[in-house]
Design goal:
Number of domains: 2
Radius of gyration: 19 Å
CATH class of the largest domain: Alpha Beta
Distance between the termini: 15 Å
Order of helices and strands: EEEHEHEHEEEHHEHEH
Shape: globular
Structural class: alpha/beta
CATH architecture of the largest domain: 2-Layer Sandwich
Helix content: 25-40%
Number of strands: 10
Largest sheet: 5 strands, mixed
Amino acid sequence: MLLAIDVGNTNTVIGMFSEDKLTRSWRIKTDSRQTADEMELTFRGLLVDSPDVTGIVLCSTVPAVLREMRTMLERYYPDVDRVIIEPGIKTGVPILTDNPKEVGTDRIVNSLAAFTLYGGPSIVVDFGTSTNLDVISAKGEFLGGALAPGIEISLDALATKAAQLRKVELVTPRNVIGKNTVEALQSGAIYGFAGQVDGLVDRIVEELGVSVTAVIATGGLAGIVVPESETITHHEPDLTLIGLRLMFERNQ
């Protein structure tokens, strides 16, 4: 079984693959203060009923967690083949940006998965701590994209800075015109971010000068925005895990 680990700023997503089939997945909180030993206890609890791990693939956008995760893998899984997505790894994704080293590994992993599943040109919209729009060419190249504050981080900032506003549950309100503070915040968040994504996608397509094969949404908050978007064509919650599996296969 292949263990795929995607460490994000807010959550860590873990998946188990049997060949190319995702059999189980978990989403846990990312804690940059966890030690390697604490991480191992967490993984031991999650994998207690799972088959033996024969391969591990990991990407992380949090350097402190990556350091401890690397220690954990070396200490507790020394004989298991592992691939850590970092410079020197064969990704199969040419990065056509000013400074390729600045590009988060999760964006490259998502690009590989999107191009493999849907071809190109295509756009990945990743709803996480930040909202990332990543553009993949017809040849599978990473062209760049757009980054915006994520939904939850925006609402947190609003609740912190505005005395009469507060955090709300992220569900679709009855109307766009909110009749109370909660519904007004929900409307602004969900319809507002859907409109933001649609506007950026339209501008990206115009700049590319060609139509795209797919606009793929992923990330923990994608499910609440996808139904309200006019440009997103596919919702693939496990896009990053699929990309990690493909990366592992490329480096064997």
